[in-house]
């Protein structure tokens, strides 16, 4: 830690700042992965551009209501109701859908 | 009129497309390949009127024309290329009416490509149950193309659809309603149009957005398109996401005019069932019980018809031998051909049962839940939950199973799945298992109702399954990939399996097995008969006369049997077997089994046929028995003990659990991985595994 600090103190500080900033964002933004079973939410936007293409195609559009149906026995994947049907996705994927 | 017009069936997965295909074509269907790819192409024929037959093309189910897997890519390949021989004259887009909004996305995209279309609203009964009613007449007016109401499961509305197809083919109507194009898109359209002569704006933009996926274009044209994309700094992802959002907005406003939703949504039956089937304890208990039930019934129910077939073949052989003169041709017919055919026919009951169960699991919608249950477990072993479908289907046959791995988007997950799938015991291994288990495992009941032989069979399947997991786990560390994959999957509602559909699947698979595997097995049986009946130079005659001079007083029957066995020993096949005997002796096999090992390199199922041919040649003709009895009576000439002892039988069983003995699998792995690297690695790792395990088992048990 010390050596790195001597080499690039600015970068290290910046990085630490970034990490704490990320934490704040994670805490404030609620995603589908944070829903409890039976809880509903409205989709706001997506964190992952590439994955959002597939999600959009499957009817997960901004302003659409989603409900968490189930969490698979081992905690992943999860099941949601969206646009009148059931969709299953991994927790990591659900965490890219940001709710309002 | 030009030769047959092509009507393509398109739609989302689970929209009932395949039952419509069966309703339209009946048994007039065949399976081929799309050129260049190994995706099954299902084509059937349908009579629309006394003067008009059309070809019905069943395209893979997809959610949009932006493919995420190889299967889905076929849809784009066909629809984006009007010069493709499979390019449809008309598209019938099958839509799940209970989920119309999402289904309409694909319909709009296909229409905008310029294909005349019919929208077929399927599963209206399901929609009605959830309180949705659709004014299809009004929808048809808005879209400007025919909208047909269907219940493909029950076969309701099929005649009306045929009539509509007939009319549409006379006066083709298209529905063009593309998203708004910005200035950049317009410029790209102008350039693509100038270079490729494509007047359809949406199609031209697909050329730009998906150039890499349009294989028919060839490298130079793909390069040209890339240059255009670069020149205008065209972002295909942004184009796609803007298009999707705009289309959904447009679809929503259309559907608002034609759909009436009433009543508060209650918990549906599907949700209630999911509570149980996805329960953290009951979910797994039920899944394992279902698997267990499958094996018990494959073994016990199928046994009776298999015995009939076995006895029937023995009877035919007996009959032929006693009524025809005793010469070489008759011997070829009975010991070569009939024995070989018997080896094929006897598997039919088991294959039929296995495919029946697998297709019921898929039909009912349960397979998708298995994927959910297994995803996290199986991900530790380098695969995805979606690998469960190939793994389970490979209990029937590894070839379609490896092809079904195409639905797995990630290359690494898919490759690992392909590499380990042949470790799952396929139906071709069943006859080997069945016969050897019947020889060495007592047919007792454990705890009153578990059949011991069924338990042993399940044990072998589990061994294959766990070794597949282990192999996947090892490969996970050996293969490196930075590629991202996703799981996102629709959970279809539970449905009662359509027995007709299950019947179709069974018929199709049994037919494929009998004709494809049958050809190989019968050819090998005949070759084997020749090799086992003739030998190099005059060795057979010399050995015969030696036996005769040594045993001048032996009674007729015993002499015959002795003669037969020296004849086999000195034949070409005997020489082959003897040649490899040193290598297989540590595994507990003699040269006769060696012959069967060599021939079964073509396909495992040949093993039993070969053994049956070899031992029927070696046996005395007066007392023709079933395959099982023949093996039981076989005695090792050196030790005087039964050849198929417990140690040898288990060693063989283990050998066949692991050995990669199937040319078709190697060929399909070659096609799917586009090279010889992976099939060769697979052949080597599985052969080494088989040899070492069989060696250990034999040494331990003997």
TrEMBL record, chain A:
Keywords: Iron. Pfam families: FeoA. SMART domains: FeoA (SM00899). The keyword Iron applies. Residues 30-100 form the Ferrous iron transporter FeoA-like domain. This is Ferrous iron transporter FeoA-like domain-containing protein.
UniProtKB/TrEMBL annotation, chain B:
Keywords: Cell membrane, GTP-binding, Ion transport, Iron, Iron transport, Membrane, Nucleotide-binding, Transmembrane, Transmembrane helix, Transport. Belongs to the TRAFAC class TrmE-Era-EngA-EngB-Septin-like GTPase superfamily. FeoB GTPase (TC 9.A.8) family. It is a multi-pass membrane protein. PANTHER family: FE(2+) TRANSPORTER FEOB, FERROUS IRON TRANSPORT PROTEIN B. The chain crosses the membrane at residues 281-302, 337-361, 381-403, 415-440, 460-479, 513-532, 650-670, 682-701. The keyword Cell membrane applies. Gene3D superfamilies: P-loop containing nucleotide triphosphate hydrolases. It comes from the Bacteria. Pfam families: FeoB_C, FeoB_N, Gate. This is Ferrous iron transport protein B. Its main location: membrane. It comes from Emticicia aquatica. SUPFAM superfamilies: P-loop containing nucleoside triphosphate hydrolases. The gene is feoB. Signal peptide: none annotated. It is found in: Cell inner membrane; Cell membrane. Probable transporter of a GTP-driven Fe(2+) uptake system. Residues 4-171 form the FeoB-type G domain. PROSITE patterns: G_FEOB. InterPro entries: Fe2_transport_prot-B (IPR003373), Fe2_transport_prot_B_C (IPR011640), FeoB_GTPase (IPR050860), G_FEOB_dom (IPR030389), Gate_dom (IPR011642), GTP-bd (IPR006073), P-loop_NTPase (IPR027417).
């Amino acid at each position: 830690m010390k050596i790195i600090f001597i080499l690039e103190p600015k970068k290290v500080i910046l990085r630490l700042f970034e990490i704490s900033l990320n934490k704040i964002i994670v805490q404030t933004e609620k995603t589908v992965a944070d829903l409890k079973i039976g809880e509903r939410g409205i989709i706001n936007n997506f964190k992952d551009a590439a994955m959002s293409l597939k999600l959009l195609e499957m009817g997960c559009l901004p302003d659409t209501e989603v409900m968490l149906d189930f969490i698979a026995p081992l905690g992943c994947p999860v099941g949601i109701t969206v646009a009148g049907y059931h969709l299953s996705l991994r927790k990591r994927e659900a965490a890219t859908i940001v709710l309002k | 009129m030009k030769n047959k017009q092509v009507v393509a069936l398109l739609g989302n997965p689970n929209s009932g497309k395949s039952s419509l295909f069966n309703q339209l074509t009946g048994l007039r269907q065949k399976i081929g390949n799309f050129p260049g790819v190994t995706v099954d192409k299902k084509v059937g024929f349908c009579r629309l009127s006394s003067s008009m037959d059309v070809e019905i093309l069943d395209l893979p189910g997809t959610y949009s024309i932006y493919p995420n897997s190889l299967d889905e890519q076929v849809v784009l390949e066909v629809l984006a290329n009007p010069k493709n021989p499979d390019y449809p004259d008309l598209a019938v887009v099958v839509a799940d009416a209970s989920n119309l909004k999402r289904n309409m996305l694909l319909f709009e995209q296909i229409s905008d490509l310029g294909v005349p279309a019919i929208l077929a609203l399927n599963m209206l009964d399901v929609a009605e149950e959830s309180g949705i009613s659709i004014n299809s007449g009004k929808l048809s007016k808005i879209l400007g193309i025919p909208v047909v109401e269907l219940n493909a499961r029950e076969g309701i509305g099929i005649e009306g659809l045929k009539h509509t197809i007939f009319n549409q083919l006379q006066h083709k109507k298209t529905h063009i309603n593309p998203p708004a194009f910005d200035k950049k898109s317009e410029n790209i359209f102008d350039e693509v149009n100038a270079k490729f002569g494509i007047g359809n704006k949406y199609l031209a933009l697909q050329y730009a957005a998906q150039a890499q996926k349009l294989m028919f274009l060839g490298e130079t044209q793909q390069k040209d398109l890339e240059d255009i994309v670069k020149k205008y700094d065209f972002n295909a992802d942004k184009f796609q996401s803007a298009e999707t959002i705009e289309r959904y907005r447009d679809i929503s406003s259309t559907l608002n005019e034609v759909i009436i939703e009433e009543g508060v949504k209650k918990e549906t039956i599907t949700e209630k069932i999911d509570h149980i089937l996805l329960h953290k304890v009951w979910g797994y208990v039920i899944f394992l019980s279902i698997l267990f039930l499958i094996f018990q019934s494959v073994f016990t129910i199928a046994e009776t018809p298999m015995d009939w077939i076995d006895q029937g073949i023995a009877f035919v052989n007996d009959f032929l031998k006693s009524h025809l003169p005793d010469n070489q041709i008759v011997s070829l017919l009975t010991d070569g051909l009939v024995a070989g055919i018997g080896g094929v026919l006897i598997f039919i009951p088991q294959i039929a049962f296995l495919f029946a169960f697998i297709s019921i699991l898929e039909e009912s919608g349960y397979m998708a839940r298995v994927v959910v249950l297994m995803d996290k477990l199986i991900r530790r072993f380098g695969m995805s939950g979606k690998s469960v479908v190939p793994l389970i289907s490979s209990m029937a046959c590894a070839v379609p199973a490896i092809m079904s791995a195409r639905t797995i988007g990630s290359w690494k997950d898919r490759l690992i799945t392909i590499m380990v799938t042949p470790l799952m015991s396929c139906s071709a291994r069943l006859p080997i298992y069945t016969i050897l288990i019947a020889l060495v495992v007592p047919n007792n009941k454990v705890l009153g109702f578990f059949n011991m032989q069924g338990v042993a069979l399940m044990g072998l399947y589990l061994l294959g399954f766990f070794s597949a997991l282990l192999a996947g786990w090892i490969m996970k560390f050996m293969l490196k990939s930075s590629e991202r994959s996703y799981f996102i999957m629709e959970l279809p509602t539970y449905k009662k399996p359509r027995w007709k559909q299950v019947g179709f699947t069974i018929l199709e698979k049994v037919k494929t097995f009998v004709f494809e595997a049958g050809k190989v097995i019968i050819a090998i049986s005949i070759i084997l008969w020749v090799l086992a009946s003739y030998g190099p130079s005059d060795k057979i005659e010399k050995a015969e006369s030696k036996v005769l001079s040594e045993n001048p007083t032996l009674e007729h029957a015993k002499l015959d049997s002795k003669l037969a066995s020296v004849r086999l020993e000195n034949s070409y096949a005997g020489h082959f077997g003897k040649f490899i005997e040193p290598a297989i002796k540590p595994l507990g096999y003699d040269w006769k089994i060696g012959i069967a090992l060599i021939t079964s390199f073509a396909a495992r199922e040949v093993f039993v046929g070969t053994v049956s041919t070899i031992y029927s040649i070696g046996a005395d003709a007066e007392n023709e028995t079933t395959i099982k009895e023949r093996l039981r009576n076989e005695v090792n000439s050196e030790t005087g003990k039964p050849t198929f002892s417990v140690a040898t039988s288990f060693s063989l069983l283990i050998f066949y659990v692991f050995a990669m003995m199937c040319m078709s699998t190697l060929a399909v792995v070659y096609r799917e991985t586009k090279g010889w690297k992976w099939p060769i690695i697979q052949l080597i790792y599985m052969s080494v595994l088989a040899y070492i395990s069989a060696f250990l088992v034999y040494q331990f048990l003997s």
